[in-house]
Amino acid sequence: MSDDLSKSQRIEQIAVEIAICQRCHLHESRKNPVPGAGDYNARLVIVGEGPGAWEDEQGKPFVGRSGKLLDQIIEKHGVLKRSEIFITNVVKCRPPGNRTPMPEEIKMCKDHLIAQLNTIRPRAILCLGSTAAQTLSGQTSPLTRLRGRNLSGLKPAIVATYHPSYGLRMGEPVVKLMESDFALACSLALGA
Ligand code: SF4
Predict the structure, then answer these.
(1) Is residue 128's pLDDT more than 80?
(2) Which residue has the least CA distance to atom 6 on ligand 1?
(3) What's the whole-model pTM score?
(4) Distance 32 CA to ligand 1 centre (A)
(5) Ligand 1 first shell, C-beta below 6 A
(6) For atom 4 of ligand 1, which residue has the closest CA?
(7) How many Å lie between the centroid of ligand 1 and the Cα of residue 137?
(8) 44 forms bridges with which residues in the sheet?
(9) DSSP string, 103-142
(10) For 19-73, what is each residue's pLDDT tens digit?
(11) Exposed (0-12), middle (13-18) or buried (19+): which is 77, by Cβ within 10 Å?
C-alpha cells in the first residue's frame, strides 16, 4: 500500500467517523455531516467555523455565498487552485440558525479536525474567523489582533483572517485584508 493510498484511506475513515458521530447535540439537527473536501496532500488547509445551510444540504464545505467569495479570493491570487487545498470547519455539523458553535461542541469535535490535520500534515493553515483562529492557535485575542501574521512558531504555520460571511457584510476593505492574509498563508505553505 502506498503512503498516498493509506493517507486517502485515513481521511475517508475520519469522514466515516464524522458521519456516525453523536458526540454533541449538533448531530440531531444536521441534514448531512460536512467532513471537508479537497486535496489529501494539500500544503494549505483552510478551516472555517461550521457548515451553513447550503453546506448542510450538500455535505460539502463552503458551497454557499461565503464559498463563492472564498473562491474569488483563491482565483484572484492564482497560485493555488481550490482543488489543491483541503477545506474544512472546526465543527462538522451545522449549528442551528448558523449560530457560533458552543465551547463544548468545539471541544467534542476538535479530535476530528486534529486527526485530519495530523493525516494531511499541511505546511500552513488559514483560519477563517475567530472561532477557527482561537481554536487552532490557542490564543484568545480578537481577530483584529490575530490576523495578518504567523501565529505558530512551529510547523504548520497558522494564519488567521476574517470569515467570508464577515467579508460579504463589510465589503471591499475587509475583502482586501482577506486577500492579503490568504497570500501570506500561501507563501508560508509553498515557501522553502
Ligand atoms: S459537530 Fe462534531 S462532535 Fe458534534 S456530532 Fe457533529 S461530528 Fe460529532
Answers:
(1) yes
(2) 93
(3) 0.96
(4) 11
(5) 18, 21-24, 26-27, 33, 91-93, 105, 108-109, 112
(6) 24
(7) 21
(8) 124
(9) HHHHHHHHHHHHHHHHHH--SEEEEESHHHHHHHH---S-
(10) 999 999 999 999 999 999 999 999 999 999 999 999 999 999 999 999 999 999 9
(11) middle
Q: Determine the atom of ligand 1 nearest the C-alpha atom of 18.
A: 7
Distance of CA 150 to the CA centre of its chain: 16
At which residue does the C-alpha cell 467569495 appear?
Answer: 69
| Alpha carbon distance 136, 153 (integer Å) | 13
> 149 CA distance to ligand 1 centroid (A)?
30
Give the chain's domains with CATH numbers: 3-190 (3.40.470.10)
pLDDT tens figures, 81-123: 999 999 999 999 999 999 999 999 999 999 999 999 999 999 9
Region 113-137 average pLDDT: 98
101 within 8 A of 93, measured Cβ to Cβ: no
Question: ∠ CA 192-82-167 to the nearest 5 degrees?
Answer: 100
131 Cα: distance to centroid of ligand 1 (angstroms): 16
d(CA 126, CA 86): 10
Burial (CB < 10 A; 0-12, 13-18, 19+), residue 61, is buried
What pLDDT does residue 51 have?
97
3-state class percentages of the chain: helix first, strand second, coil last, to nearest 5: 55, 10, 35
